């Protein structure tokens, strides 16, 4: 398993592999909430949940910030009988030391981080399942190339978090095969959100069966994409 090669700049992780930031230097938590929670309408959907399980699939686990943000909203707004399945794929996971350091600034997630550290420390290539919050939240963390791993997944997504690094810096992830798998793992009411507004990404999402919309991006980003499967 190859770990991420990162550098700490003003207490924030920076990827040397992709020459890119992991999250906004303005406010990473606010960015995660704005892009992925709000534009997948998760607060409202969690409140109105009428089934036992809600599934999110994410491309690019990174520091885990999106996961912790989604888990926090799920616990706050969903029925207590419901469970969250969060499936995330990461090619270059953070080392245990970097994972802890990256999340020590988000005090609201302290208990969840502590509950996951044991499982995170034992990660291997391929499939890993970590649980927290009395078993209500399952993190299915897949380590490896997204194009090789997504075909092994059969859970359909209620919501997609299309993260990872920018298409201009991580073209291998934003490949045509990724969008073919998104089509396979989506249903008529699946939603997606992504920080990027790249034209290739927009066109491929439309081909994958999504109605794609633009909105103002977070912080220094001009625009972002979100939408609903047709």
Description:
The protein has 230 residues and is of the alpha/beta class. The chain has a single domain, classed as Rossmann fold, CATH 3.40.50. Helices cover 31% and strands 30% of the residues. It contains 8 helices and 11 strands. The longest helix is centred in the first third of the chain and has 13 residues, at 65-77.
Round the mean pLDDT to the nearest integer and report it: 95
Structural class: alpha/beta
The CATH topology is Rossmann fold
Question: What is the percent of helical residues?
Answer: 25-40%
Secondary-structure element series: EEEHHEHEHHEEHEHEHEE
Q: How far apart lie the N and C ends? A: 38 Å
CATH superfamily: Vaccinia Virus protein VP39
Strand content: 25-35%
Number of beta strands: 11
Number of domains: 1
**Unreliable parts:** none
What is the correct CATH architecture?
Answer: 3-Layer(aba) Sandwich
List the helices and strands and how they pair.
Elements: E1 6-9, E2 12-15, E3 20-21, H1 28-38, H2 42-47, E4 53-59, H3 65-77, E5 83-90, H4 96-103, H5 110-121, E6 126-132, E7 137-143, H6 146-149, E8 157-162, H7 176-184, E9 186-194, H8 199-207, E10 210-216, E11 223-229
């Amino acid at each position: 398993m190859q770990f991420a090669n990162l550098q700490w700049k003003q207490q924030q992780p920076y990827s040397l592999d992709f020459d890119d930031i992991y999250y906004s230097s303005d406010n990473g938590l606010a960015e995660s909430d704005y892009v992925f929670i709000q534009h997948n309408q998760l607060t409202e959907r969690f409140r109105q949940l009428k089934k036992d399980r809600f599934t999110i699939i994410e491309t690019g686990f990174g520091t885990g910030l999106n996961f912790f943000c989604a888990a926090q909203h799920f616990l706050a707004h969903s029925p207590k009988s419901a469970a969250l399945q969060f499936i995330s794929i990461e090619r270059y996971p953070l080392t245990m030391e970097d994972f802890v350091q990256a999340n020590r600034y988000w005090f609201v997630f302290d208990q969840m981080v502590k509950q996951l550290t044991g499982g995170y420390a034992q990660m291997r290539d391929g499939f890993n399942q970590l649980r927290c919050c009395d078993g209500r939240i399952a993190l299915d963390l897949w380590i490896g190339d997204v194009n090789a791993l997504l075909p092994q997944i059969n859970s359909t997504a209620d919501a997609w978090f299309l993260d990872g690094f920018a298409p201009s810096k991580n073209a291998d992830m934003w490949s045509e095969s990724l969008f073919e798998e998104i089509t396979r793992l989506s249903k008529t009411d699946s939603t997606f959100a992504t920080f990027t507004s790249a034209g290739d990404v927009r066109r491929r999402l439309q081909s994958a069966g999504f109605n794609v919309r633009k909105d103002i991006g977070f912080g220094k980003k001009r625009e972002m994409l979100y939408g609903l499967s047709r």
